[in-house]
Amino acid sequence: MEHTVRGKKKLKELVINRDWCKGCGICVSFCPKKVLELDSKDKAIVVRPEDCISCKLCELRCPDLAIEVLTEEDND
Amino acid sequence: MAVKDYLRERFFPHMWCPGCGHGTVLNALLRAVEELQLNKNDIVMTSGIGCSARISGYVDFHSLHTLHGRALAFATGVKLSKPDLKLLVPMGDGDALAIGGNHFIHACRRNIDITAIIMNNRIYGMTGGQFSPLSGPDKKATTAPYLTIDAEFDIVEVSKAAGATFVARSTTYHVKEATEMLKKAISHKGFSVVEILSQCPTHYGRKNREGDAVQMMTGYRDNTAKLGSKALADNPSLIPRGIFVDQARPEYCQEYDNIIAKASRNRAA
Ligand SMILES: Cc1ncc(C[n+]2csc(CCOP(=O)(O)OP(=O)(O)O)c2C)c(N)n1
Ligand code: SF4
Ligand code: SF4
Ligand code: SF4
């Protein structure tokens, strides 16, 4: 269903805006590859970037617009 | 344009609680607008009052933050005077169907080209958790310490019966689906309604033992099913998601122009 993983875009960087993140854990819980965790300050951090499949679900679901998944194809 | 170009970043971090679904609705809406490549100067967002209604402060479109329940009335005024603009009207379930219920059904009936987005958290979030016409029976709310007894509206059925020509439902868990529906709704010529189930962990989740944002979204995953799916056929108690209505009917502004043309002809004759 909506979990279809598009292509094989290579991850360049997972950018987390710590000023905007409120530590809700949505990105952590629903990441299909368990790439993210919350740190001791309850902010999302990237712990296993090598496992990321760039599905962007974390970016799309984040209620605080605090994550950006940059892939090799994105020019910005 | 990038998604952030449609945001008023100076107001971030936003006012919504951690895990509030309304932020995900904002996220999905920005993607829809970006994917449609709309010019932000062509978009007007009108909103009423509520946590949901605060969304109009965060988007870099023309915006009107108006009165509780009256966002559609303002949108109707804007649309009739400037029919080329895209009107987006996000509303809470209380805003849309309690105090704003009358405006809502008549906007559906007229089929005016406006996109209504109902951020349904089944509660009055902003004022502290009073039950709404979408809470349904057996729910705990500050105004129902012994549980609610009222039946809830089904937004899809109300919209259909009132005459909306595009009606869809999704959830904050199903963001890609929600974004696709928003794109279709915005492109549709006529009155469109997109209901997005949106968690209020602060006032609804906690009181009703539905847990935190993650648990509530897991509930959206497990308790809904796509229209026409086997899951839904096997278990009709699931909440259906999908596009329920997508039809053409004369649009209000166009009909209004026609009547002006007719009156002008009569006068000239
Ligand atoms: C005319 C009027 N009546 C009542 C209120 C108080 N009030 C503010 S927001 C609200 C309800 C908000 O609930 P909803 O529309 O579902 O949005 P949410 O906060 O849950 O997103 C009410 C009753 C008001 N502001 N104006
Ligand atoms: S979903 Fe967004 S706000 Fe929530 S923990 Fe992840 S980055 Fe932070
Ligand atoms: S892009 Fe997908 S796989 Fe990568 S961190 Fe986000 S949710 Fe996980
Ligand atoms: S009270 Fe509820 S609806 Fe309002 S911001 Fe908090 S979680 Fe969202």
Fraction of helical residues of chain A: 10-25%
Task: Tell me which CATH architecture of chain A applies here.
Answer: 2-Layer Sandwich
State the share of residues found in helices of chain B, binned by percent. 25-40%
Largest two-chain interface: A-B, 19 and 34 residues
Provide structural commentary.
The complex is a heterodimer of chains A (76) and B (269). Chain A has 2 helices and 4 strands. With 76 residues, chain A is α+β, with helices and mostly antiparallel strands. In chain A, the strands form 2 sheets. In chain A, strands 1-4 form a two-stranded antiparallel sheet. A two-stranded antiparallel ribbon of chain A has the order 2-3. In chain A, a hairpin with a 5-residue loop joins strand 2 and strand 3. Chain B has a single domain, classed as Rossmann fold. In chain B, strands 2-1-3-4-8-7-10-9 form an 8-stranded mixed beta sheet, with helices on both faces. In chain B, strands 5-6 form a two-stranded antiparallel ribbon. The longest helix of chain B has 17 residues. The interface between A and B is medium-sized, with 19 and 34 residues. The site of one iron/sulfur cluster has 13 residues of chain A, from helix 1.
How would the blueprint of this fold be written?
The complex is a heterodimer of chains A (76) and B (269).
Chain A lengths: L10 E6 L9 H5 L5 E3 L5 E3 L10 H5 L5 E5 L5
Antiparallel strand pairs in A: 1-4, 2-3
Chain B lengths: L20 H15 L7 E5 L14 E4 L5 H11 L4 E7 H5 L3 H10 L4 E6 L2 E2 L5 E2 L23 H8 L3 E6 L3 H13 L4 E6 L3 H5 L7 H10 L1 E3 L3 H5 L4 E8 L5 H17 L1
Bound molecules: thiamine diphosphate (TPP) and iron/sulfur cluster (SF4) (3 copies).
The site of one iron/sulfur cluster has 13 residues of chain A, from helix 1.
